[in-house]
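REVIEWER CHECKLIST
Item 1: Sequence provided? yes
Item 2: Single chain? yes
Item 3: Sequence as submitted:
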Amino acid sequence: MNINTEKPYISKQDLDLLNFYRGEIKHEFNLLSTRLNILITCQSFLVVPFSILNNVSNFKIAAIPQILVILLGAYTSWLARNPLTLTQKLIREWLVKQRILLKKIEGNEYKNSRDILYNVEIDTTYDKEHEQSIAFSKQAPTVFLVFWLLAFIWTLFRIYT
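Item 4: Structure as written out by the authors:
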């Protein structure tokens, strides 16, 4: 029985292209992570003054600064949506290019289990692990927007009662 332990052949050009794609994917994931960290840090710095202003004894005096904090929180959440969405789109594009290239390579030495899934080179929505990995970055701006909307309603309720 002869077992072949050699890696499948991949041309230098394809290997360089594969490394380039993987580098771009890594770069975009780092960018996504950085943008998400900025959003969460910004929101956390705004939730603290909101909480402090929400607990003052004379609430009607603190209502205007609290509304300003709410507007700033909602604005930064809204502002973060497009850069996060764009980065997710670019990650998908680079993954598709990488997977199209990997289809040409015989064997599975350069592939991970998600690269072998059916139709992942066309549409990353078939890659459930990838979709789960970016789910928080998709939902975070919306969750913060909903929070600030509810905070605004709560503030108005407290002003008029």
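Item 5: Key structural point noted by reviewer: The chain is about 75% helix and 0% strand.
Item 6: Recommendation: ____
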